[in-house]
Specification:
- 49% of the residues lie in helices and 11% in strands.
- It is mainly alpha-helical.
- The chain has four domains: 232 residues, no CATH class; 85 residues, no CATH class; 34 residues, no CATH class; 96 residues, no CATH class.
- A three-stranded antiparallel sheet has the order 5-4-9. Strands 6-7-8 form a three-stranded antiparallel sheet, with no helix packed on it. A two-stranded antiparallel sheet has the order 1-2.
- A hairpin with a 2-residue loop joins strand 4 and strand 5.
């Protein structure tokens, strides 16, 4: 049976495939030994030069030039917005698995990050987005049987460099090049912005911000000169051809005094006049300043904000919010993922061997606007739709809700013995001995009694069976579940009616028969 090996990418292949050269396990397109045609030969014991063209051409590889870019007010403001937007989001640590040891490792990491002020650490590391890369030193401690994080120090990237093997080195006064090789599991770093993995320094926002800031500062310089020229005319002094050097000096001092003194004296035979600046066309330095600020905003925030935003269109405020959220999530993931791949794994391996690695992350999603969702739900309800189950309400809006029961119809007062047949009163004449006129009167009285009994039966209907029917009808109208309504209706038909209802219907039927007999007897007497 053939042996198998696992490659660096996780693929498991037969061992003979590797031995026969069919699968190359190592790197081929490395930057070592002169294989990288973009760099030439690179010694593993010398600094690897950054490939940032602006940094190399304008700053000779010194990141101090980008620190000067950071002094610009627009750059500082927009970059602070981007950084603080990440810090404002809450962070969580979730276990890598469901076992008790996985949860213990996550809880331990969470307590460590709270102790070292994770937000402050994140704020410092986020400057790596501006420069291209960031470096932090892990200060390890010990608490009983656990190795702890005593501190995380974000270091100045100008103190570090990468060698030909792309290993991070610390430049010191005694070892400037290549610098001290740093110990493993001690420094946490990341790079960003480059379009390939052969650049360990990354490519930060400063690469694109340099020229807008340069032109802006140059424009301000000429703007000041412009204001000076057109704000105050230039003084001109004239001296005769035979003027001495002393007289020329006195004239120059007089010209200088024009800027500060209310009155000046002029040597005899010399004249002073003011030269008014004349120009044609426009010199709109304000427009240049605004244009460069807009360019800076686009580089840092992905949009120009209120400078040229139009609501409802691409680049509008609503779109700008979405773009900013994408940048915030990208920056948060950059810091968190690099920490998860480095210090979080190291700490777990030391303290909880075999545990699944925990993961620190920031909660970027703002969640759904429940007010807008409620408006949509109300619109659908007005159109005749409603949730099938109350679970939708609980899951969407939170809390514990139940459906409000339908209001029962008000009960009408039940008269005592309302449906009992009228009892003969003293002085009443029996129908068989009554005269024809009396028979007609009796029939009318019977009809009135029956009508009264029907009205009283209707009034008493709610108390006998109407309440249950009303509840059944209300359920059908509100739920729309006609299958259940049909089942409950069958149950109602199979249920024995109340005894009081049976007696009332019997009395009503008896009264109806008496009325019919009375009407027939009256008709016979008329004939």
């Amino acid at each position: 049976m053939a042996d198998y090996v696992q490659l660096d990418n996780g693929l498991v292949v037969p061992l003979d495939y590797v031995e026969r050269g069919r699968v190359e396990r190592g790197e081929v397109a490395t930057t070592r030994d002169g294989r990288d045609v973009t760099r030439g030969f690179v010694s593993p014991f010398e600094h690897l030069a950054p490939q940032d063209s602006v940094l190399m051409a304008r700053g000779a590889g010194n990141y101090q030039i980008y620190r000067e870019v950071l002094r610009d007010t627009q750059v500082a403001s927009t970059l602070s917005q981007r950084r603080l937007a990440v810090i404002a989001k809450s962070w969580e640590v979730e276990p890598g698995g469901k076992r008790a040891i996985d949860k213990a490792a996550a809880e331990f990491l969470k307590e460590q990050l709270k102790a070292v002020k994770w937000d402050q650490v994140t704020a410092g590391m986020l400057y790596g987005v501006f420069y291209g890369y960031a470096v932090a030193e892990m200060l390890w401690g010990r608490d009983g049987r656990y190795i702890t994080i005593a501190g995380i120090k974000v270091r100045d990237r100008r103190r570090f460099a990468f060698d030909g093997e792309m290993r991070l080195r610390l430049m010191t006064m005694s070892q400037m090049n290549p610098g001290e090789l740093l110990p493993e599991r001690k420094f946490w770093s990341f790079c960003t912005g480059a379009d390939h993995d052969d650049e360990p320094y990354g490519l930060g926002l400063a690469h694109w911000l340099y020229w807008p800031v340069f032109f802006k500062r140059a424009g301000i310089k000429f703007w000041m000169i412009f204001l000076e020229k057109f704000g105050q005319p230039t003084a001109k002094g004239s001296y005769p051809a035979n003027a001495t050097a002393e007289e020329k000096t006195r004239l120059l001092n007089a010209l200088s005094a024009i800027n500060t003194d209310a009155g000046v004296i002029v040597p005899d035979g010399m004249a002073i006049e003011l030269i008014e600046a004349a120009r044609s066309g426009t010199a709109d330095y304000v427009k240049l300043h605004e244009c460069m600020d807009a360019a800076i905003s686009k580089v840092v925030l992905g949009h120009t904000g209120s400078t040229d935003a139009t609501p409802g269109r691409l680049g509008g405020e609503s779109n700008a919010h979405d773009v900013r959220q994408d940048l915030v999530k990208s920056d948060a993931d950059l810091v968190c993922e690099s920490f998860n791949d480095g210090p979080a794994k190291w700490l777990t391996d030391w303290n909880f061997p075999g545990a699944a690695y925990p993961r620190v992350w920031r909660v970027i999603d703002e969640g759904e606007d429940l007010e807008k969702r409620a408006e949509v739900d109300k619109t659908l309800h007005d159109m005749g739709y409603e949730p099938v189950d109350v679970t939708y309400i609980n899951d969407t809006y939170g809390g514990t809700w139940r459906k409000k029961p339908a209001a029962a119809a008000p009960k009408k007062p039940e008269p005592a013995n309302a449906l009992a047949p009228a009892q003969p009163q003293a002085g009443d004449t029996p129908a068989e001995f009554a005269e024809p006129g009396d028979a007609v009167a009796q029939a009318t009285a019977d009809q009135a009694a029956l009508a009264k009994a029907a009205d009283e039966f209707a009034a008493n209907y709610e108390g006998l069976i109407g309440e249950r029917i009303n509840e059944l009808l209300a359920y059908a109208e509100e739920s729309g579940d006609f299958a259940t309504f049909r089942e409950r209706l069958v149950e109602l038909m199979q249920t024995a009616p109340p005894e009081q209802l049976v007696q009332s219907l019997e009395r009503a039927g008896f009264s109806a028969q008496l009325m019919g007999m009375s009407a027939a007897d009256g008709n016979r007497r008329k004939v």
